[in-house]
Amino acid sequence: QPQNEHIELHRKRYGYRLDHHERRRKKEGREAHERSRKAKKMIGLKAKLYHKQRHAEKIQMKKTIKMHEKRNTKQKSDEKTPKGAVPAYLLDREGQSRAKVLSNMIKQKRKEKAGKWEVPVPKVRAQGETEVLKVIRTGKRKKKAWKRMVTKVCFVGDGFTRKPPKYERFIRPMGLRFKKAHVTHPELKATFCLPILGVKKNPSSPLYTTLGVITKGTVIEVNVSELGLVTQGGKVIWGKYAQVTNNPENDGCINAVLLV
Amino acid sequence: PGPEPAVPQSMSPDEDVQRLLIQFRDEAGESLGSPFDVPVTITPDKLQLVCNALLQKDEPVPLAFFVHDAEIVASLEKTLAGQSVETEKVLDIIYQPQAVFRVRAVTRCTSSLEGHSEAVISVAFSPTGKYLASGSGDTTVRFWDLSTETPQFTAKGHRHWVLSIAWSPDGKKLASGCKNGQIFLWDPATGSQIGRVLSGHSKWITCLCWEPLHINPECRYLASASKDGSIRIWDTLVGRCDKILTSHTQSVTCVKWGGDGLLYSSSQDRTIKVWRSQDGVLCRTLQGHAHWVNTMALSTDYVLRTGAFEPAEATINPQDVSGSLAELKDKAQQRYNQVRGQEPERLVSGSDDFTLFLWRPAEDKKPLERMTGHQALINQVLFSPDTRIIASASFDKSIKLWDGRTGKYLMSLRGHVSAVYQISWSADSRLLVSGSSDSTLKVWDAKTKKLAIDLPGHADEVYATDWSPDGQRVASGGKDKCLRM
């Protein structure tokens, strides 16, 4: 079988036959008849397969024709008022079906028993020691390597004083200490800049929790007295948990979502 | 010293009964007559006789007496039993006039009116109680004949759910707002549309409120609040928008036209804004809520709704209020002044943060009181028609009653098994009806603060309730597409 472009080459060099185009046109015209002649004469498995394929082809053709027709005519949009009318006070609220409420209650009870809580960022990449703590060499010949410097953003409390420099093992640089976080209320979709009260839990390691290291997924406690929330007893709520949603060491700020 | 009160003979002879000096005071603190001597065993009836004599009115008015915020039910002695009494000093007894008429509790369902093909979302009686209108999810507003309890007119025109309806204070026009942001005006006598469609809002209409009768007896201006965060004041005679008040950053949930020329609007952006209705200028922003403000109520709400109609003069067959525009205006103004008294209007707002705030918006930016206690969001708050009690309906299945002047907590009404959607007071402030998503309505007695009657019968959630201003009927509609009376 010829494998190269000799036909195209010939056409380029010598052009087409004089009656080429007419012959081609007529052959294409005969095609429908040829097809139907073959389809009538085919028998056996070959016929089954062919007919199946042809049926699918015809359906597709009909669909495209219909689509073309639709495009040409202008149709008045079907105005059907949607079902499920609710009064104005229920419009912005998602209604819960009763079955869902019961199953939610059961699920919550089970979770409480297991001690698992729903947080906006459930899984975070665990950060190893080499990433978070940098080795600082000290001593006359810089041979001692027992000091570590924190490379991530951290929070130290108000009354924080460093240990005497000779004895401190973990160094938290002032440039990486933050006091405020940008906290978003998930329902109101509004963000407030609130002071941090403390680091509750760092998912990577309890060591980071005690040091006050803030990475993505850390649960921190923030001062929400600005928001004016009140308990049912009338007491003002002034501390709430929030979970950090960005990598603060990359962005230079702490973004968190309030856990309501 | 005032005129000698007619003291019945049985009171004087007992020598060994302790006697006390009492002084009658009204709610505002002004004293009536001069202090005088009574035995401790005196009962409220006798106190009423004395007080009526001092008031010198033509007809005796029923009164309730309070000593140190405790009502005198049996006798003065029993009420003072728990309190320390100084017999040397003059004891202040505060008297409160009660409504002269009494509304009997609705006890049964007289009819179930079907006709709507989708859920009934809003129900309202006209200010005189003559007509009843209901808006529904099938885009129609239906008028019902109250004497035969059958459908009267069907008003078609809206193209989406009819979310809110409001009667003009003279009862001659009904405005209805839909989910497309359009407002239609209807004539209740013929069921046909008045004027043009008022369109302009880009999102759905949350609330409609007419201008009070005593400011303008023609009932010309209408305020509408929408999800797009703006409030529009429409001129209904000309059929176009007069003013647009924009300042809210999120959906406006409620708008109320006060009787002193101020307009109040609450929004999902946690603020309530006070506007001057003359020129649409923003006067004040009341902040304090921590979540969406869902609902508001004015102390003069009921009297602004009924206009010149006096519930005490109601007849069995409700009629329209007659008289020239000037007469109506005078009557409405009188009734308004009576309810308002000397103090400015009070406003109570309920929010998704489970608390209510009591404000005096005409005077102060700071709230008078923060009322906490609910355990879920508050859907509706209402002042009683005599402005003494505030009732708040919440999704935590309870209704709480608070004092209307100070905002102090009075009582919780429990009985519903799921969220309470809407409440309505009877015209004499003695009864309260509440509709809930558990498909029942309950009638509560405000005096005993207990459940009076349970009204089951709806097949699905009850979305809207209303008590007619003449006290004869309660209408309720809900998800089961039928209206019950």
TrEMBL record, chain A:
<dbReference type="GO" id="GO:0042273">
    <property type="term" value="P:ribosomal large subunit biogenesis"/>
</dbReference>
<feature type="region of interest" description="Disordered">
    <location>
        <begin position="1"/>
        <end position="43"/>
    </location>
</feature>
<comment type="similarity">
    <text>Belongs to the eukaryotic ribosomal protein eS8 family. Ribosome biogenesis protein NSA2 subfamily.</text>
</comment>
<dbReference type="GO" id="GO:0006364">
    <property type="term" value="P:rRNA processing"/>
</dbReference>
<dbReference type="InterPro" id="IPR039411">
    <property type="entry name" value="NSA2_fam"/>
</dbReference>
<dbReference type="GO" id="GO:0005730">
    <property type="term" value="C:nucleolus"/>
</dbReference>
<dbReference type="GO" id="GO:0030684">
    <property type="term" value="C:preribosome"/>
</dbReference>
<keyword id="KW-0539">Nucleus</keyword>
<dbReference type="Pfam" id="PF01201">
    <property type="entry name" value="Ribosomal_S8e"/>
</dbReference>
<keyword id="KW-0690">Ribosome biogenesis</keyword>
<dbReference type="InterPro" id="IPR022309">
    <property type="entry name" value="Ribosomal_Se8/biogenesis_NSA2"/>
</dbReference>
<comment type="subunit">
    <text>Component of the pre-66S ribosomal particle.</text>
</comment>
<comment type="function">
    <text>Involved in the biogenesis of the 60S ribosomal subunit. May play a part in the quality control of pre-60S particles.</text>
</comment>
<keyword id="KW-0698">rRNA processing</keyword>
<protein>
    <recommendedName>
        <fullName>Ribosome biogenesis protein NSA2 homolog</fullName>
    </recommendedName>
</protein>
<keyword id="KW-0687">Ribonucleoprotein</keyword>
TrEMBL record, chain B:
<dbReference type="InterPro" id="IPR011047">
    <property type="entry name" value="Quinoprotein_ADH-like_sf"/>
</dbReference>
<dbReference type="Pfam" id="PF08154">
    <property type="entry name" value="NLE"/>
</dbReference>
<keyword id="KW-0853">WD repeat</keyword>
<feature type="repeat" description="WD">
    <location>
        <begin position="113"/>
        <end position="154"/>
    </location>
</feature>
<feature type="repeat" description="WD">
    <location>
        <begin position="413"/>
        <end position="454"/>
    </location>
</feature>
<dbReference type="InterPro" id="IPR001680">
    <property type="entry name" value="WD40_rpt"/>
</dbReference>
<dbReference type="InterPro" id="IPR020472">
    <property type="entry name" value="WD40_PAC1"/>
</dbReference>
<keyword id="KW-0539">Nucleus</keyword>
<dbReference type="InterPro" id="IPR012972">
    <property type="entry name" value="NLE"/>
</dbReference>
<dbReference type="Pfam" id="PF00400">
    <property type="entry name" value="WD40"/>
</dbReference>
<dbReference type="InterPro" id="IPR019775">
    <property type="entry name" value="WD40_repeat_CS"/>
</dbReference>
<feature type="repeat" description="WD">
    <location>
        <begin position="198"/>
        <end position="235"/>
    </location>
</feature>
<dbReference type="InterPro" id="IPR015943">
    <property type="entry name" value="WD40/YVTN_repeat-like_dom_sf"/>
</dbReference>
<dbReference type="GO" id="GO:0007219">
    <property type="term" value="P:Notch signaling pathway"/>
</dbReference>
<dbReference type="InterPro" id="IPR001632">
    <property type="entry name" value="WD40_G-protein_beta-like"/>
</dbReference>
<protein>
    <recommendedName>
        <fullName>Notchless protein homolog 1</fullName>
    </recommendedName>
</protein>
<keyword id="KW-0677">Repeat</keyword>
<feature type="repeat" description="WD">
    <location>
        <begin position="245"/>
        <end position="285"/>
    </location>
</feature>
<feature type="repeat" description="WD">
    <location>
        <begin position="371"/>
        <end position="412"/>
    </location>
</feature>
<dbReference type="GO" id="GO:0000027">
    <property type="term" value="P:ribosomal large subunit assembly"/>
</dbReference>
<feature type="repeat" description="WD">
    <location>
        <begin position="455"/>
        <end position="485"/>
    </location>
</feature>
<keyword id="KW-0914">Notch signaling pathway</keyword>
